[in-house]
């Protein structure tokens, strides 16, 4: 039979308190406020606040804008439809701007930005 000492009586509760402390720290980290992994809803801005993107068309509504964006993508141009403070805008990168304007001028209706 092993001999028991004062250390063996303290070892069990110390391990339990250590495990409980680790669980508390992990749960505090998991449920803390702050950096969420869920994206915030997009905020509208002016057409010049979209980084490198430049507006190439100003459709009258979102549906027309989606048709224009899809026609640009069908022609191999990366395009985004952004809801700006001035209404919807079809936006492309500067390298594709002239090609996009050419496609849109012969394609579906839209007023140019």
Distance between the termini: 89 Å
Task: Based on Cα principal axes, name the global outline.
Answer: rod-shaped
Q: Structural class per helix/strand content?
A: alpha+beta
- CATH architecture label of the domain at 47-106: 2-Layer Sandwich
Number of helices: 3
Strand content: 5-15%
Strand order of the largest sheet: 1-3-2
Helix content: 40-55%
Radius of gyration: 29 Å
Mean pLDDT: 85
The third-level CATH topology of the domain at 47-106 is VC0802-like
- Which sheet architecture does the biggest sheet show? 3 strands, antiparallel
Give the full name of the CATH homologous superfamily of the domain at 47-106: VC0802-like
Q: In terms of per-residue confidence, which ranges show pLDDT below 50 for 5 or more consecutive residues?
A: none
Summarize the structure.
This protein has 113 residues and is an alpha+beta fold. It has 3 helices and 3 strands, in the order αβαββα.
Topology:
Layout: H1 6-30, E1 54-57, H2 62-74, E2 79-84, E3 87-92, H3 97-106
Antiparallel strand pairs: 1-3, 2-3
């Amino acid at each position: 039979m092993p001999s028991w000492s004062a250390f063996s009586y303290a070892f069990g509760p110390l391990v339990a308190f250590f495990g409980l402390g680790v669980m508390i720290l992990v749960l505090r980290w998991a449920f803390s406020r702050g950096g969420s992994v869920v994206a915030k809803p997009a905020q509208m801005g002016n057409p010049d606040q979209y980084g490198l993107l430049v507006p190439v068309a100003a459709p009258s509504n979102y549906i027309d804008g989606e048709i224009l964006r899809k026609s640009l993508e069908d022609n191999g141009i990366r395009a985004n439809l952004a809801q700006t403070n001035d209404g919807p805008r079809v936006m492309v990168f500067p390298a594709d701007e002239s090609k996009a304007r050419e496609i849109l001028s012969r394609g579906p209706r839209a007023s140019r930005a």
